[in-house]
Amino acid sequence: MFSTLTTINGYNPIKALFLKEFWDNKRSIFVTPMVVTGLFIFFGLVAMITGHGMMIDGMSMSDHIARDPEFGSRATEIVTGMIMVSPMILMITVAFSMVFTALSVLFDERKDKTILFWKSMPVSDTQEVLVKLATVVVVSPLIAIGFALIIQFAAMLMLATMVALNTDYSAWNLVFSNINYMAVLVGDIIPTFVIILWTLPIFTWFMLVSSFSRRSPFLLAFIIPVLIIIIENLFFDSHILESALQSRFIHLETYIDRYDVDHGSNMVNGIFGLLGSFAEPSFWAGIVVAATMIFGCIQIRKRNSIA
Amino acid sequence: MTAYISAKGLSKSYGKFQALKDVDLSINKGQIVGLIGSNGAGKTTMINAILGLSSYEGDLNVLGFDPHSQRDQLMKEVCFISDVATLPSWIKVHQVIEFVEGVHPKFNREKALGFLKKTTIPMEKKVGNLSKGMIVQLHLALIMAIDAKILVLDEPTLGLDIIYRKTFYDQLLEDYFDEERTIIITTHQVDEIENILTDVIFIREGRIMYNASMEETLNTWKVLEPKKESIDEARSLSPYREIKSLGRTSFVFKECDNATLKELGTVSRLSLSDLFVTLMTGE
Residue A122 is nearest to which of B54, B92, B104, comparing CB atoms? Predict the structure, then answer.
């Protein structure tokens, strides 16, 4: 299956473009999450062997069970929660690598002049830019979710092993039967893409900068908004950009809170509650801004050849 | 003759600098055109316009397409190798073949593999690990496997050693060129290509200075190396240019009767590079 996904037989431009982006960005979208996953499992095993239990709220599992007589009623929430947050470091790493990928996708090809080769092929700039966007905001997170599932599976096994070895409880009763598997899966997918859609204007801004920047897209991408915010504050006493940026994150927090409160058997519904944030006008304002940025990327790529 | 490329009043400015000034041009099916000019003369600007890589003013028609707005469709019929090595260094040889197969409806994988078989290029290596010569061979193999109408080569052999340069053009003529195709070549090494050209265009400061077929060029321009006693007589025939080198005098004639010249000394054809120098310094 994997090989039919990664080989090209005959004319199939969109697949070829996606594969090209994958080959080009393999390090940031595949190798990096793979390494983080490996490290997570490695240190998890080390922690198990050296006897450092996994900590929840600063207490080991056994302490929780010993101290909290009501652990039983909250067991699903706690155990599922542990499994859900286990790929946190991975997801943060992937968020950073998405930023770097977005900043380089339209810059590197101009810097190393390979754009002249890509442009010698019968694919339009629109196709190229849209595939690049999808690589950053769809392919990269999907690969990350794949690795997140590996981490979660490993975390589950390690947790079960620890319980079996260190407590009198059965791993089945305490761990496996207490995991809301659906919530774990939905919890990997929905929040990831809700956050990405909300922050789409930021990712597309990074791509826009990478499409016109002559030297360091990284610096420009951050200096321009910082300058705008400072100038706005000093001379116009306004905070339009600042609050627009904050709205990308603050709104989400409220929805994430909602699903944290809505725990227990409704965990899955709680996660789906995040989709409610799409009803906000500012979400759609963000999508319009993102679409404008992408339109800009396409126009600039049409005109620019070499950095 | 079918015109593949026609331009009328083609201009391009970068700010105040006019890189192309009101160029009229027609390139037909079955031609091999040498586009020759000094650095900054406008060669690459002209080629970029033809390839749809930049905007321009004026009328430009390439195979019925407007290159800038229809580049993606145009590239089904047009291939190019630009003056810089543009194959990505991170891509493996077999990957780049797959990629071109995926995006180009007129690419023939067997053909490309056939060309590559004759080389020592390993399929599993990354382009970045190949020698410059191999990269050009790879690029040429890819492009010759595409059934295109126009091939544009912008300084294709830059930085190659002489053996690769020779085989490059030989292969191009033997395995690729036919009367249905047109090839446009820009290069500094004029002497290397003059035997394969059917037409030549000189360009200076954004204008076309000279545009003629090789046949016409050879018939029109002659070099006379006169016998010592005939030097003055030759000079009286109003040569286009007088060349003195290593104590010998020779004259460049334009449109002069061959028989008359032969009486005065040895007549030979004017090489393209000499013609270039003559035209560029003469006026």
Answer: B104
Name the DSSP class of A269: H
Residue B5's DSSP bridge partners are: B27, B62
Q: Does B237 touch chain A (CB under 8 A)?
A: no
How many helical (H) and strand (E) elements, i.e. helices and strands, does chain B have? 11, 13
Chain A residues touching B73 at Cβ < 8 A:
122
Task: State how far the Cα of B98 lies from the Cα of B93, in Å rounded to an integer.
Answer: 9
Query: What was the pLDDT predicted at A64?
Result: 61
Q: Looking at the complex, does the CB of residue B90 fall below 8 Å from at least one CB of chain A?
A: yes
Q: Do B68 and A20 touch (CB under 8 A)?
A: no
A103-112: per-residue pLDDT in tens?
999 999 988 8
Residues in chain A: 307
> Torsion-angle region of residue A53: left (phi > 0), alpha (psi -120 to 50) or beta?
beta
- Sole residue written with tokens 């930023």: A99
**Reported ipTM:** 0.85
- Cβ proximity of B21 and B206 under 8 Å: yes
Pairing of the two strands B241-245 and B248-254: antiparallel
A111 at B interface, C-beta within 8 A: no
B171 in contact with A, Cβ within 8 Å: no
